[in-house]
């Protein structure tokens, strides 16, 4: 991955620009052309790698490569076989079939996500359905999902956004389970929803970096000055063993700036050896650790692993042509520009995800929810959530200052993520 040829687009265009100016580089270019003629086809491959778009536009399909039937797949031909990228599509207003459950009917939604209870004046955000361009999504069949989980464990591992997806999954299923036959319990980093009659669990494990970090306390996580320990995935991974369906995410906590602090030894060392890596390199290291862990610990004949891409924030309204100084607060409509990509959403990270998965044979199903969520500036919790600290008069006077443009109201967008998970689980 670290070969000079796969360097970024900026450095390759730099070389070409210089070549016009310098005779030395002109000679070099002539030599490259000569080599290109000698090794025609290889050179086309190399050019392909240099083109940043070529690695960005092809959707990853780790599942397509191996022809054998994936665990939990139903039937032989799947949606992907028909050439449908379920992550490419548009939002359709669907008042008769959405939402898939009511906020008041799911007691497991944390008070940070119950927007109606906290005074959101409208609920337009609940009535959207994702419509892929090339096919229809199968409807979410809660009976099928729950029967599939009989005697099994499903676990979401990652940060608060993945916790949201976990809660959404529980909300989608819990109606089928009578009151006294289900429970939700938390043990430190692990939250477990149990469907007793089914002997099934749906779990969430807090590990915002997947690797060990100084933000691992599930309740009190230090926000600034984050440090991640290299090679430490087993610290958390030992709690993921034996899971049948695993869903990872990690993104937001890496966004501290352009560099990330990486600890080489242990957090107990008196003198800590800490290096600063560019965020993309640090993230790549974590992704590779995850793949290695999956390879060593998951049985590809019986289990499935998913990875959910970056959840976008909507903290700057100028991104979508709004008034300067505003954010997701008071937003009730979708972004219609199909090419919209928010400035908080780091393309470099998406590129790393693409490269790491493409270079890997470990079967992980990629849930590319970033673009479809990018359109949903209306779907955040904004100010309609439980506030942990009382608001100051200044805040009350200006709601934009305390609107949460990271997390999502429930029911809402994250139910769609689970519809996509459902689709990829049964119809890969
Ligand atoms: C949902 O799945 C169950 C169990 O596989 C099946 O019996 C039922 O027909 C499905 N429902 C629909 C609407 O497809
Ligand atoms: C319940 O499920 C677990 C896996 O989560 C399994 O190990 C155990 O054997 C199951 N128990 C029964 C009684 O089916
Ligand atoms: C919210 O947006 C509407 C227009 O969509 C506008 O009329 C209203 O003044 C805004 N409210 C606040 C408090 O900014
Ligand atoms: C995810 O989808 C977006 C938009 O369709 C695309 O730009 C991006 O490259 C995809 N990511 C990967 C890793 O395939």
From TrEMBL:
Compartments reported by the entry: Membrane
An example Gene Ontology molecular-function term: O-acetyltransferase activity
GO CC list: Golgi apparatus; membrane
InterPro entries: TBL, TBL_C, TBL_N
UniProt keyword NADP, yes or no: no
Residue stretches making up the Trichome birefringence-like N-terminal domain: 83-136
Coiled-coil regions listed in the entry: none
Pfam families: PC-Esterase (PF13839), PMR5N (PF14416)
Presence of keyword Transferase: no
UniProt cross-references to PANTHER family, sorted A to Z: PROTEIN TRICHOME BIREFRINGENCE-LIKE 33 (PTHR32285:SF62), PROTEIN TRICHOME BIREFRINGENCE-LIKE 9-RELATED (PTHR32285)
Similarity-based family: Belongs to the PC-esterase family. TBL subfamily.
Protein name: Trichome birefringence-like N-terminal domain-containing protein
